[in-house]
Amino acid sequence: MPETSQQKRIVVVGAGWAGLGATYHLAKQGYDVTLLEAAPYPGGLVAGWKTPLGRSVEGGIHGFWYPYYNIFNLVNALDLDPFTPFTRSSQYSPFGLEVESPIFQNEPRLPTPLGTFIYTRFQRLPLIDRLSALPLLYAVVDFDNSHEAWQRYDKVTARELFKQFGVSARLYKDAFEPMLLVGLFAPGEQCSAAAALGMLYYFILAHQPDFDVVWCRGTVGEKIFKPWVEQVEKVGGKVLTNKRVDDLILDEFGNAKAVVCGEETFEADAVIFGVSVSGIKKIVAGSKTLNRYSEFRDLNNLGGIDVLATRLWFDRKVNVPLPSNACFGFDPTTGWTFFDLNTLQDEYKDETGSVIEADFYHANQLLPMTDDEIATKVHRDLGTCIPEFREAKISVRSVIRVRQGVTHFAPGSYQYFLGAKTSIPNLFMSGDWIITNHGSWSQEKAYVTGLEAANLVIERLNIGEKAAIIPIEPDEPHIQVARSFNKTIREISRNLLPDFWLP
Ligand SMILES: Cc1cc2nc3c(=O)[nH]c(=O)nc-3n(C[C@H](O)[C@H](O)[C@H](O)COP(=O)(O)OP(=O)(O)OC[C@H]3O[C@@H](n4cnc5c(N)ncnc54)[C@H](O)[C@@H]3O)c2cc1C
Questions:
Q1: Which of 167, 207, 294, 457 is least surrounded by CB atoms within 10 angstroms?
Q2: Quick check: is 81 in a domain?
Q3: Are residues 323 and 263 in the same domain?
Q4: Within this chain, do residues 208 and 175 fall inside the same structural domain, yes or no?
Q5: Beta-carbon contacts of residue 54 (< 8 Å; ≥ 6 apart)
């Protein structure tokens, strides 16, 4: 009997964007795919659930930026309509409103980064501070997401990079550090300069509309993952929740032949991991197999970051000018965002009082506080941004602590991040921390790396068609010219000068 993909069993671990993306594609190609998820619901960091009183909550609100082409493509293919229109956003500090962003795609298109500088409405930041960002453009051109560029910039902190390039203290504090806290979840002195440049280029600088964002009109779990899992099951994939994977079993040739999950084992011809940094560290700690490989032991050098997601129901409507807001300057190393859910989410449109989600990133010092203390702090900070909140009373609150939940792109961490291929030939990695040339970040990156891992399985087992992955939009022509000129100069100097200095 000729071998068919039905006979090839694939086990995927972790049902976030990465794991479900890989599962869906391989199931569509006819593989026998089993997805094992430790939590009671699929979704990973974007899972949503209901409280005992039937109110929807989630571990943080998630934006979908303009260049999330692969996710938008998936959502269209699934025939879903989960998103709001593109929304404007603002930034607040303890002094009040600082910045308002337009919808950039609606403004006349200018060569990057002119649109970002000209159309963003800074309320207080002096022009001289904004102009101090100009020298940084050299680093933006020099960091082309290549392996060499990561090696050059990863061991420098983002703060040091901005300092070296002459960014003013005020621009750093009022613009760059808030972006790092929201985009990489950590303050500049704890972020790799490579990650900072990669993230800022992808979300803000590469093309004028890139900073435009839509939001889910409910939890991502309910609006996207639930119908997506139904579709995965329709094409034959199995999604099993409450299955925490502990180990792998290898055959005599060093290939993975089964995945261990408590008392059960799931046999596999190939395995894909789609778990977070803290998830994989826990698996490695208890795994006799993975512990034998230095690349997996080395993962202990990586870390996660604490995040706090709160949802407050107020006794009255407060006028929130724009639905999504980022805040800085309230705590020295914590950034936060707040969202007007009455505007963004269908469920709250007709509520008589405001429903506000406030999420805190790098929230280490907030996690030990009681729920009441946290709600009081959030209420106070909201009142600082929009004084009308001071009069409103909290009627219900939800507090979710996501310990070590998001990837920490710490200086020096690149050397320990894994690529999709591992020393175990049929074990592939995916997730928002896996090295890829694609250039995307966060949810889009997680989904793309899931597809890339699925494609490696197809390449290895030689059955089925690879997923078509939409690349990010090419650099604008002037950036291409600048990068190519810079690369030539680098190559010439590499040939002329001894390999003597630190990269
Ligand atoms: C508060 C907050 C706000 C965010 N905002 C945004 C945003 O606005 N836009 C954006 O694009 N991104 C945002 N992100 C980041 C985004 O959520 C992640 O990049 C993305 O969801 C990561 O997906 P993933 O599949 O790589 O991993 P995860 O979502 O972490 O999924 C991994 C899965 O593996 C499971 N798992 C772990 N260990 C095991 C095991 N041993 N056995 C079985 N299963 C296991 C976990 O339970 C989990 O379901 C935000 C994150 C947070 C926390």
A1: 294
A2: no
A3: no
A4: yes
A5: none
